[in-house]
């Protein structure tokens, strides 16, 4: 019985200790201290040098936290208790967060440098009039290939179906990306909600299955650099990294069109330090800063004025900064609604089992 | 004394209730709910009428079976000879050592070994055979999964075999049985309990191996784990994901039932 008393005492002690730690943690992450700025961003998605420069110029202390998927970010912001001042999600998630009142409208009076942003990246369907979001980076989905490992360079999605590429394509493991290839190769929209079109696209994709070496995610970059495969369907920024490491790799945007995506800065409802959030937005809109960041990360900047700071070859690189006529063929993912997200994913699963 | 025993077992029942029974009940409850949260049989119907889901269930079962068969085939002789070595505890430790390493690290190590420029292909190159595509094949998936599961088969087998009284074997030899007869009529029946727990320890986790299916097999092996992940993370159709989870639990119960001890006997 004595042991039991000691044990119970220990448990009470432990519980109160945990309670105390919890309070302490909440205290450090929850309270608004005027000079702290909480940034919640994708991993490795800002030049760390710029963060220290921002701290030096503005006097704010940056606390940088990272996420690895829009969904993970959404869950954490929605549940609250976090105190993030600025978040950088992708366009379809921004549309959802606007709908659910998780982001605050921006005061355009407080933002300097709006005019630096290319008009093509403003006033888009997910946030008309940029009431809630400011573009940070944008990019495309395309084909990366190694010139030494393929006989003919692919130009279109249709080319990927060629038997020449049997068992040599690394495909990104995503339902919308893969279904999108089928849809665009059959001349339909990436956001199709027509069952016949979707069935036709899935049918079309059965011919692609023998050419696919593997369906993988982040590892694509490593495999392409190590020349494990000759081709890959991947995002532009990933391709930029591959090209940086292996000069034989090239990146093309298929002629049929492709996906165009945006990551924009938004102020979530958890904001504690609005002034710092605006200061950060303004800092990132400075052309020279945007240029340095794009150079470091490899994705494309929406900041037109930043182009002046780039080397000639970067701007002329049509695959990363495509001309107007190519841009017009690119489509942004729209929120499909539960029913069609389910259908896209079921068709994708079926495609995966063809292997 | 009896009261004390009850008190001492309380944490165990609390743990089992909170982390085993309640989650399973929640999953069962979830599997009868549609996306709006109302009661439905549609998830169940959707699962049993989908050729894709049924195919994936079959694949899960098939690969778990193959992995278990291969680990058993390798581990039984290994455990048997291990019990006969001089420093058996040391050798056992060496063979168990890989479990101290995180499974992801092991998978990435295998990527390095099996890739086009990896160790195996370099070796093949020296032997005059050109580089072979080894990564993203079903056989490499089986090899890696077997490698990872071997310690979990080896340990119960070793314990069962090591627990067999030496006097029983001596008696068998005294009565005129040769080594093979001794093994068949004495050692093998007494080791069956180890075989059973080994099969359970390997088959059950193998059913839901899903990270390896992408990392090593490049999604060429499609098991239910992949579909469950998709339903919980992407489509948010928790009902459908739960149905698949329940299916896996049912398969586990079937395997437990088949490998249950039918009569008294055996050690371990």
From TrEMBL, chain A:
One of its GO terms (molecular function) is polyamine binding. InterPro entries: SBP, Sperm_putr-bd. GO terms for cellular component: periplasmic space. GO terms for biological process: polyamine transport. CDD domains: PBP2_PotD_PotF_like_2. Keywords: Periplasm, Signal, Transport. Spermidine binds at residue 92. Its main location: periplasm. It holds the Pfam family SBP_bac_8. Residues 1-21 form the signal peptide. It is found in: Periplasm. This is Spermidine/putrescine ABC transporter substrate-binding protein. It comes from Alkalibacterium kapii. The gene is potD.
TrEMBL record, chain B:
It holds the Pfam family BPD_transp_1. Coiled coil: none annotated. The keyword Membrane applies. GO terms for biological process: transmembrane transport. One of its GO terms (cellular component) is plasma membrane. PANTHER family: INNER MEMBRANE ABC TRANSPORTER PERMEASE PROTEIN YDCU-RELATED, INNER MEMBRANE ABC TRANSPORTER PERMEASE PROTEIN YDCU-RELATED-RELATED. Belongs to the binding-protein-dependent transport system permease family. CysTW subfamily. This is Spermidine/putrescine ABC transporter permease. It comes from Alkalibacterium kapii. The lineage of its organism: Bacteria, Bacillati, Bacillota, Bacilli, Lactobacillales.
């Amino acid at each position: 019985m004595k042991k039991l008393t000691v044990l119970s005492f220990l448990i009470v002690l432990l519980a109160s200790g945990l309670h105390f730690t919890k309070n302490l943690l909440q205290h450090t992450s929850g309270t608004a201290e005027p000079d702290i700025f909480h940034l919640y961003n994708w991993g490795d998605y800002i030049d760390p040098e710029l963060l220290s420069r921002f701290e030096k110029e503005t006097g704010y202390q940056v606390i940088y936290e990272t996420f690895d998927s829009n969904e993970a970010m959404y869950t954490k912001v929605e549940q609250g208790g976090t105190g993030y001042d600025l978040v950088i999600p992708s366009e379809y998630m921004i549309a959802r967060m606007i709908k659910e009142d998780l982001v605050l409208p921006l005061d355009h009076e407080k933002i300097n440098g709006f005019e630096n942003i290319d008009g093509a990246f403003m006033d888009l369907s997910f946030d008309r009039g940029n009431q809630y979001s400011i573009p940070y980076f944008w990019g495309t989905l395309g084909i990366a290939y190694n010139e030494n490992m393929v006989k003919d360079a692919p130009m279109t999605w249709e080319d990927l179906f060629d038997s020449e590429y049997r068992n040599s394509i690394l495909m990104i493991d995503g339902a919308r990306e893969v279904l999108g290839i089928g849809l665009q190769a059959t001349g339909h929209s990436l956001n199709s909600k027509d069952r016949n079109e979707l069935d036709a696209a899935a049918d079309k994709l059965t011919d692609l299955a023998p050419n696919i070496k593997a369906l993988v995610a982040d590892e694509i970059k490593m495999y392409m650099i190590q020349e494990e495969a000759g081709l890959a369907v991947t995002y532009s920024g990933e391709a930029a990294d591959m090209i940086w490491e292996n000069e034989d790799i090239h990146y093309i945007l298929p002629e049929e069109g492709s996906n165009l995506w945006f990551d924009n800065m938004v102020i979530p409802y958890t904001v504690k330090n609005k002034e710092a959030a605006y200061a950060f937005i303004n800092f990132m809109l400075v052309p020279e800063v945007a240029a340095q960041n794009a150079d470091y990360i490899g994705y494309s900047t929406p900041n037109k004025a930043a182009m002046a700071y780039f080397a000639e070859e970067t701007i002329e690189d049509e695959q990363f900064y495509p001309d107007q006529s190519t841009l017009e063929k690119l489509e942004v993912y729209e929120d499909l609604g539960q029913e069609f997200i389910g259908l896209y994913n079921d068709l994708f699963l079926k495609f995966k089992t063809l292997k | 004394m009896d009261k004390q025993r009850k008190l001492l077992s309380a944490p165990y029942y609390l743990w089992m209730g909170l982390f085993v029974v309640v989650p399973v009940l929640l999953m069962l409850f979830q599997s009868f709910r549609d996306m709006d949260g109302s009661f439905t049989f549609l998830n169940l119907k959707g699962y049993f009428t989908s050729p894709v889901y049924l195919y994936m269930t079959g694949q899960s079962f098939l690969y778990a079976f193959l992995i278990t068969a291969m680990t058993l085939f390798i581990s039984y002789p290994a455990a048997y000879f291990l019990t006969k070595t001089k420093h058996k505890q040391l050798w056992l430790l060496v063979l168990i050592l890989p479990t101290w390493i995180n499974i992801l690290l092991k998978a990435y190590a295998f990527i390095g070994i099996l890739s086009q420029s990896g160790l195996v292909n370099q070796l093949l190159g020296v032997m005059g055979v050109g580089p072979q595509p080894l990564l993203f094949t079903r056989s490499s998936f089986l090899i890696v999964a077997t490698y990872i599961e071997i310690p979990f088969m080896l340990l119960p087998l070793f314990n069962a075999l090591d627990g067999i009284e030496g006097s029983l074997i001596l008696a068998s030899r005294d009565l005129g049985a040769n080594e093979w007869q001794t093994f068949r009529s004495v050692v093998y029946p007494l080791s069956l309990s180890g075989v059973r727990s080994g099969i359970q320890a390997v088959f059950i986790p193998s059913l839901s191996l899903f990270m390896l299916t992408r990392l090593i097999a490049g999604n060429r092996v499609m098991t239910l784990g992949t579909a469950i992940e998709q339903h919980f993370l992407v489509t948010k159709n928790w009902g459908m994901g739960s149905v698949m989870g329940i299916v896996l639990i049912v398969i586990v119960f079937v395997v437990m039932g088949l490998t249950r001890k039918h009569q008294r006997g055996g050690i371990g």
